[in-house]
Amino acid sequence: MAAGCPPATAGESRLSPPHHSSTVPAPVPTLSIVCPMRDEAEALPALASRLIAVLDACVDSFEIVCVNDGSSDDTLSALQAWRSRDPRVRVIDLTRSFGKEAALTCGIDHARGQAVVPIDADLQDPPELIPEMLRLWRSGFEVVLAQRVDRSGDGLLKRSSAAWFYRLHNRLADEPLPANVGDFRLLDRRVVDALKQLPERRRFMKGLFAWVGFRQATIPYSREPRRHGRSKFSGWRLWNFALDGITAFSTAPLRIWTYLGLAVALAAFVYGLVIIALVLVAGRDTPGYASLMTVVLFLGGVQLIGLGVLGEYLGRVHQEVKQRPVYLVRHPDDHAA
Ligand code: UDP
Ligand code: MG
Fold it and tell me: Which is the most buried residue in 135, 149, 168, 188, by most CB within 10 A?
């Protein structure tokens, strides 16, 4: 189906059930691996061989759900070639790039396994942790987190900004994010079904994963550098991603203005009393221009920041009320039930 058709016919959206090419349901695999990919043709051979070697050794049945997030390189044809060699691979092609969170949502929506593990294509999430995740899952944990204890694979700026983000987010949000845990984790089918009930369109997946709760175990690992290509998350994109995370899970930035306003009003009142006292008692004339300018500019700045914060939330409300689907699928995958 062509991209550019109206959403109702262009493919599936998150709100319509996945397309099924036959009426006989395929057997449910034990494990679904979900891999969002954008321009990862170079990374694919190494990913495929490491992943298959690990999975063949640790699980009886599995599927690998690859979501092509509007790649401009050969990712799609490489995925299709992989699928033709291995029927356990499923390829879902989005109509354009919707971003990692949307691609991940799409993969999770389509995954059929009893357990689901999202993984990055660049091998920064080592597939060798999956057997341990499965062991903990079989022992009763519904979520198994992979926590990066060593992030030397990421640059200094990314590490320190991530540390600040987790600190700020966890201070503001109702449900704290476990620090240094990415999307690489195992989710039980019950957790996946709970996630599918969350209707929001701007999807900060790490926050949603934490919000649904369930019984969790953690495995530490050290994060390796990206093998091929470059990270798709530039500084500006990371900043916006952090804003998404905070605004999606906290209204504290909105409420803070009430208290800031009260504090400024109180300070202004006290300052007014001081000026009156100085005039009446010390007989000193009120100094004018410089202090006035400073206060006016300061308050103007503070008000604009407040408006900006309101705008951040209003923009997100605006996007939610439009109720557009999170993603659109061009090709329904061939190996679905
Ligand atoms: N990704 C995606 N769409 C995007 C950006 C990234 O599907 O718009 C995929 C990417 O192909 C990779 C994963 O998300 O499999 C993580 O991306 P990346 O390695 O660039 O992120 P980082 O590890 O730097 O956080
Ligand atoms: Mg990466």
Answer: 188
| Band (333; pLDDT cuts 50, 70, 90) | low
Q: Tokens 């319509």 sit at which residue?
A: 16
- Which ligand has the minimum distance to the alpha carbon of residue 232? 1
Q: Which amino acid is at 251?
A: T
**One-letter amino acid for residue 7 of the chain:** P
Residues 162-190 have pLDDT tens digits of: 888 888 888 888 778 888 888 899 999 99
Instruction: Name the pTM for this structure.
Output: 0.75
Phi then psi dihedrals of residue 223, to 5 deg: -85, 125
- Do 50 and 23 meet the contact criterion of CB atoms below 8 Å apart? no
* pLDDT at residue number 316: 85
Please give the order of strands across the beta sheet that includes 115-118: 216-222, 143-150, 181-188, 115-118, 31-37, 62-68, 89-94, 329-331
Ligand 1: does its nearest atom lie under 6 Å from the Cβ of 144? no
**One-letter identity of residue 240:** N
Q: Is the C-beta atom of 232 inside 6 A of ligand 1?
A: yes
Q: Which CATH homologous superfamily contains domain 8-250?
A: Spore Coat Polysaccharide Biosynthesis Protein SpsA; Chain A (3.90.550.10)
Give the containing element (helix H, strand E) for 148.
strand 143-150
CA of 231 to the centre of ligand 1 (A): 6
Q: Which are the contacts of 30, defined by CB distance < 8 A and separation ≥ 6?
A: 59, 60, 61, 62, 113, 114, 115
pLDDT tens digits, one per residue of 223-274: 777 777 777 777 787 788 888 888 888 888 888 888 888 888 888 888 888 8
Average pLDDT score over residue span 206-216 = 87
- Please indicate whether residue 122, judged by its CB atom, sits closer than 6 Å to ligand 1: yes
Burial category of 174 from C-beta neighbours within 10 Å (exposed 0-12, middle 13-18, buried 19 and up): exposed
